[in-house]
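Lab notebook: predicted structure, single chain.

Context: the supervisor wants predicted structures on file for every construct in the current expression panel, including those that have not yet been purified. This is the next one on the list. No modifications to the sequence; it matches the entry in the shared construct table.
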Amino acid sequence: MLPLEGVTVVAIEQAVAAPFATRQLADLGARVIKVERPDTGDFARAYDETVHGQSSHFVWLNRNKESLTLDIKTEGAVLEALLAKADVFVQNLAPGAAGRLGLDAETLRARHPRLIVCGISGYGSSGPYRSKKAYDLLVQCEAGVVSVTGTPEAPAKAGIPVADIAAGMYAYSGVLSALYERERTGEGSSFEVSMLDALGEWAGFPYYYTNYGGSPPPRNGARHAAISPYGPYTAGDGAVVFIGVQNEREWSALCENVLRQPELAEDPRFARNSLRVEHDGELTEIIEKALAGSSASEVEQRLDDAGIASARMRTMAEFAEHPQLAARGRWGEVETPGGPVTALLPPVEVPGREPRLDPVPALGEHTAAIRRELGF
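Prediction complete. Output recorded below exactly as produced.
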C-alpha cells in the first residue's frame, strides 16, 4: 500500500498550483478525481503542444488522476454525490467563484463535516486584492521576487513557476496535516493558501536583508547577494565552474588546496564572509586568475578533494541525461493520451514501495465510469 490509499480527493483545478498539490497526493496513493469543463477542460491542456502534441505543463502535473467532465452549474447533483464520498476537496477557482457556486468551505463543511476543504487563491479571501486575478509572473512581481532576480541591468522572473509551486506545496502539506488531525478528532477542517503568502515565505531572506539592512540584496545574476565566493568562475579552458563556500573552514581550504594561495585566507579584505561579499569583484578576479592554468575538470577535481561544493551548469537536455539520476534509477515511464513519456519518479522515496506512475488522463476519460459509480 501507498500511504494515502483509500483517500479520495475531488479537485476543481486548473493551471499549476492546485494540480501540483493534488499530483503529490496522487503520487502517494490518493484517488484524485479531476473535475474539468466539458469540451475544453483544464485550460493548461492548451498551453503548448510539445509533448506528443500535448501541453508540457499538463503532462507534468496530472499523472495518476481521473478526469471527469462536468458542468458544475447545471449538474450540481453529480458533484454533491461525489463530495459526499470524498475526503478532500481542493479548488483554485477564480476569485469569488467558489462562494457563488456554493463550494465555499463553510457551506461544504455544514453538509459534510468530515470533509477537508482547501482553497487556493492568488491573494487570499480578504483584503483589497481579494478579487484580483493572479498568475505566477504577477505574484512573483507582487512578492518582490522579480526585483531581486536577474542581473544588475535587468530584473527577471524565475524560470519555473515558483509562486504556483510554493502555493501547491503548502496546499499539499496542509492537506496532509488536516488528514492527520481528522484521525484524532474525527472532524474535517478547512484552510486556504494564497500564492502571495506562500511565495512571500520563500522570499524570507531578501525580506529580512532589506527590512533590517536598509537596502535590498543586489541582483547578481548567478552569484549570491550575501555569500562569497558563491557562483560561476571561469577556468583556463573557458568552461565555467560553480563554486559554493559556506563557512570559514571551507574558505581556508579553497585558498590552500584549490587556489594554492594559503595567504589569501588572512587577507583583511576577505577576513569574513561579509567582507568577501563587499569585495566580491576583486575576489572573483583573484580566483579566476588562480584557475587560469587549469581546465574545468582539473578545478572540479581539486574542489572535490578539498571538500568544496561545486557544479557545472547543465542544460535541461543534459539534466535528462544526468549520471546521478541514471545511476539511482530515478526515471520511469508514464502513459499519456499522446504516447509514453519519461518521468522523474516522486521525490519521496519509500523503501519497499513501488512508485505510482499511472497515466495522464484524456479529457473526460473517466466520466462514464464515475457517473455509473455514483448512480447516474
